[in-house]
Amino acid sequence: MSTQRTVIVTGGNRGIGYAIAEEFVRLGHRVAVTARSGDGPAGTMTVRADVTDAASVDAAFTAVEAELGPVEVVVANAGITRDMLLMRMSDDDFSSVVDTNLTGSFRVVKRASKGMLKARYGRVVLISSVVGLYGGPGQANYSASKAGLVGFARSLTRELGARGITANVVAPGFIETDMTAELPEATQAEYKKSIPAGRFATPAEVAKVVAWIAGDDAGYISGAVIPVDGGLGMGH
What we know:
Keywords: Oxidoreductase. Belongs to the short-chain dehydrogenases/reductases (SDR) family. This protein is α/β, with parallel strands linked by helices and 236 residues long. It contains 8 helices and 7 strands, in the order βαββαβαβααβαααβ. It has a 7-stranded parallel beta sheet with strand order 3-2-1-4-5-6-7, sandwiched between helices. It is globular.
């Protein structure tokens, strides 16, 4: 059993974020999730926060620190998509996705780093995507935001690495969520053909990797990009 930590998962009210929060609870950690609406899984503390607003992020952290103690693990998972071909993509389609997915992660990690620096311990996990490095048609905004997390994690590693703080990126591929379930059967079959594993991942498979990289055993891994994509993005 690894040391019990205080964990924040942003966007922990559904999908991968929900599964990540569940896994940390299962391992006995003190877990809070941020959400704009809805709630995290049983055993978590849910706080309202919008990652596009620094004051909102600060208030959420303050509430969690008062209830659960200093935050030692932060999982920046909150994200949005606005898929659109480049020629039709508006400035707002691009900037709003970057502001949530990339700048939102910056706001969350900056706030978390205060306590981590004081404690000389911290785990930062940024949830990217296979399309961050592999690319995806109609996803210039999303891919750019998710690729940006890699540079962010590596800069954090160089800046904070000597203080017992690691920063890593987990890059999921296709995951069985409400979103993928809505895809037509033929489309799902087409996607599965390009995945060497021949299937989508379960959210729990991503969650277990996140929990491990945030744990005691992964203290010498930092600035890494860990794909959980069944081999889809190999080498990207």
